[in-house]
Amino acid sequence: MVPHCHERRKDHPPNIGDPGHYEGVQNSGSELFWHPEGPFRDVDTRAGFPKLDGFLAAAIRTVHSPGLNLPWYSTFGNHDGLSGGCYPAAHTFIADVATGSRKLEAIPVGEAKQLMRLADTTGDASPRC
């Protein structure tokens, strides 16, 4: 039975890490990502992105929502099984898993390890013949 709208949770904390502070790429120390707080000179800051004190605290602030009065079902999508939700190499085994016409539901541990080693060393986890 689907709960009524007034029974649904209405407060949604967007933070999945430490509840006391932001954890993510914007404070990772990597120059590949914009760091809105602090003196770190990443690529985006050098390109003119601003310093915004309090930005990361605002990013993890609880969102209050009235919800919708309709059923909602969460499903496992084609990008949920990928590293970071994406994989840049087109025409590879991983791309086939994400967008192909068949669904990979299980893979033996040994084969999974072999595919990960291939992806780590070549950027392409396509099986080799």
Give structural notes.
- Helix content is 23%, strand content 3%.
- The protein is mainly alpha-helical and 129 residues long.
- The protein has a two-stranded antiparallel ribbon with strand order 1-2.
- The N and C termini lie far apart (50 Å).
- The model is unreliable at 1-6 (pLDDT under 50).
Provide a short characterization of the protein structure.
The chain has helices at residues 43-46, 55-59, 93-99, 109-122, and strands at 11-12, 63-64.
For this entry, give a set of tags.
129 residues, mainly alpha, two-stranded antiparallel sheet, 4 helices, 23% helix, disordered N terminus
Which residues sit in consecutive blocks of at least 5 with pLDDT less than 50?
1-6
Give the neighbour order of strands across the main sheet: 1-2
State the helicity in percent bands.
10-25%
Measured on Cα atoms, how large is the radius of gyration? Answer: 20 Å
Strand and helix map with partners:
Blueprint (H helix, E strand, L loop, with lengths): L10 E2 L30 H4 L8 H5 L3 E2 L28 H7 L9 H14 L7
Antiparallel strand pairs: 1-2
